[in-house]
Amino acid sequence: MALDVITVPALDSAQPLGNIVLLHGWGANQQDLEPLIPYFRLPTHQYLLPNGLFDHQLTPTGKMWYSFTGAGELTDTSRQELATSREALLAWIQDLPQQTGVPLAKTWLLGFSQGGAMTLEVGLNLPLAGLIIMSGYLHPEIAAPQVCPPIAILHGRQDEVVPIEQAWRTRSALVTWGARVEYQEIDMGHTIVLEELQAIRQFILTNGEPSLL
Question: Which CATH superfamily is domain 5-212 in?
Answer without folding.
Answer: Alpha/Beta hydrolase fold, catalytic domain (3.40.50.1820)
